[in-house]
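User: What would this chain look like folded?
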Amino acid sequence: MQPNEFKLDNPVFYALSEKHQKFAIDFDHIKFYHPDYCPFGGFVSDKDISTPILEYAKLINTFFIIGPKPVFSGSLLLKNELLCLQMIISQKIKINIDDEIIELNESHLKELLALVKLVYPEYFKPKTVALGKYYGIFKNNELIAVTGERMKMNEFTEVSAVITHPHHTGKGYAKQLVAHTVNSILDQNKIPFLHVSKANTGAIALYEKLGFYTRKELSVWNLVV
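Assistant: Here's the prediction, encoded as structure tokens.
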């Protein structure tokens, strides 16, 4: 077990208590990312959080809480529960990197947002890129695959936005980008982790092949106004 691994049980709360504190809307027992950056919240489970959830709902009409099922007001609706596996890795990934990987910057933002919109538009916001480093592979001057960093704690960094354009899947781009991102995080003396839908068996198989193992299951609750 890694030092302070218990923080991964409540990744949003601890990220917003540590490295990402400046992005937090903090109600003490529940913390949310500012909705311009990431529509996620996390809370201490033995406290009443119904009122701050309503306050956050004034800022964004759909958002996600990671962890135990939250208690919320009748004026909000629970759209769904997504059961995810939280996976972790502690060793570098040793594979061949055959394609050039570019660290993305502001000049790539329009292309990045267009690619994300095809796959995960609900999770990725215009300022999400400020949360960490993002890397991409280009073909014929088109951004066709990305991976990056999202939630950050003192000891842990989340691998996120593992996205390949639907016309370019099955060519090993995601594998290379995940390996590059994981190795970069380990070079920062942080432990990489990620979240993947339990139903996404193809992605889970890829991560296991690269050396990730499942630490636990976590629920992602989608609340809507």
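Helices lie at 11-17, 50-57, 109-117, 173-187, 201-210. If you want, I can go into more detail on any region.
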